[in-house]
């Protein structure tokens, strides 16, 4: 059998994606050298963006596998190298696609990414659990999804989504780790150990800006932001940094509905942001005989939606009600969100239903500002 040409080997390598960037390694300038001897033994050098790339074993394995699948290849030797400054700069340039540094792609008028900021009147209502599960359910529906854990004081998203490796930094560009099909970035990833972060407004704003501008998100359909509880600096920052971000309000049946609605509504009015709707969490507990025990009362979600509708003057729907479900908490604790670990349980069904509603409105320009200014004649 004749040995394959270098051309054929490169074609095979074009089928290998960088596990973080999700583009063929041949396009990213990562294939440094590939050669084959008369006995069909291939030697290839793959250049990593940084030496400490957490996914280098995956990359090495994928490369080996792709080359061994080529007819006539008898052995493969993968050497991992590291890009030099010049090569890294070229890669960064290519990934940014000519976009200026520190620009937030989601804030650009033509952006097709739907940005949802998940907010709540107070803590502990399940905002992070809802964010994590909606993200995973949307990814399951085939959308490209990213999550920013903007709850700088109580970051919990990485654990809930099951992210178990740190982001890779390519100079000033950050590659977000991924789990359950979702790209995740959190301030928790930049704080050693479990130290509490004491950051003031301007620092929060800068951190958020960095998460949005310096992280290589790629082309996303949906970006979810888990906001800290209550109204505050971060919500205002989000509005400034991504004017097109829309708000999803999470509440429990028990919450002083009017109060929650008023606060959320006043922010939205001030910042001219659209409220997508209200999600009620911890709505009831399904008993073994099928009856519902309304542990925290009932009607809070609908009340918040009704008051919000009055305050902002447009119809704000109740997007769904999520029952109490032990498997939701367990899934969050083990990094295996309930929409995947128990999709047919009470919370799994409710969350997937809400995600389905969001998925159908994903990625579209309808009702969005086009960033055009009428010209006077
Ligand atoms: N529907 C539910 N069924 C069972 N447990 C739930 C449900 N929703 C949330 N929980 C649990 O309640 C706790 C609080 O949830 P979560 O951390 O998502 O709330 P949060 O609003 O983000 O809180 P914080 O204000 O601290 O950020 C978690 O332990 C979570 O697992
Ligand atoms: Mg939280």
Question: Which helices and strands appear, and what pairs or packs with what?
Answer:
Elements: H1 6-13, E1 31-36, E2 41-48, H2 56-68, E3 75-82, H3 85-96, E4 114-120, H4 127-140, E5 145-149, H5 157-161, E6 168-170, E7 173-175, E8 178-179, E9 182-186, H6 201-213, E10 222-226, H7 233-241, E11 246-251, H8 257-271, E12 275-286, E13 292-293, H9 300-312, E14 318-324, H10 326-334, H11 338-341, H12 346-360
Parallel strand pairs: 2-3, 4-10, 4-11, 5-9, 5-10, 11-12, 12-14
Antiparallel strand pairs: 1-2, 6-7, 8-9, 12-13
Helix pairs in contact: 4-12, 6-7, 8-9
Tags for this model:
single chain, 377 residues, alpha/beta, nine-stranded mixed beta sheet, three-stranded mixed beta sheet, 12 helices, 14 strands, binds adenosine-5'-triphosphate, binds magnesium ion
* Low-confidence blocks of residues: 364-372
State the total count of DSSP E strands.
14
Q: What is the CA-based Rg, rounded?
A: 23 Å
Largest sheet: 9 strands, mixed
Indicate the structural class: alpha/beta
Bound molecules: adenosine-5'-triphosphate, magnesium ion
Helix count, DSSP H or I runs of 4 or more residues = 12
Mean pLDDT over the full residue set? 86
Straight-line N-to-C gap: 73 Å
Strand content range = 15-25%
The sequence of SSEs as H and E is HEEHEHEHEHEEEEHEHEHEEHEHHH
Please estimate the helix content.
25-40%
Q: What would you call the shape?
A: elongated
Describe the structure.
It is a single chain. With 377 residues, this protein is α/β, with parallel strands linked by helices. It is 34% helix and 21% strand. It has twelve helices and 14 strands. It has helices at 6-13, 56-68, 85-96, 127-140, 157-161, 201-213, 233-241, 257-271, 300-312, 326-334, 338-341, 346-360; strands at 31-36, 41-48, 75-82, 114-120, 145-149, 168-170, 173-175, 178-179, 182-186, 222-226, 246-251, 275-286, 292-293, 318-324. The strands form three sheets. Strands 4, 5, 8, 9, 10, 11, 12, 13 and 14 form a nine-stranded mixed sheet that branches. Strand 11 (246-251), helix 8 (257-271) and strand 12 (275-286) form a beta-alpha-beta unit. Helix 4 packs across helix 12 (346-360). The radius of gyration is 23 Å and the shape is elongated. The N and C termini lie far apart (73 Å). The relative contact order is 0.12. Bound molecules: adenosine-5'-triphosphate and magnesium ion. Residues 127-128, 151, 154, 156 line the site of magnesium ion (MG).
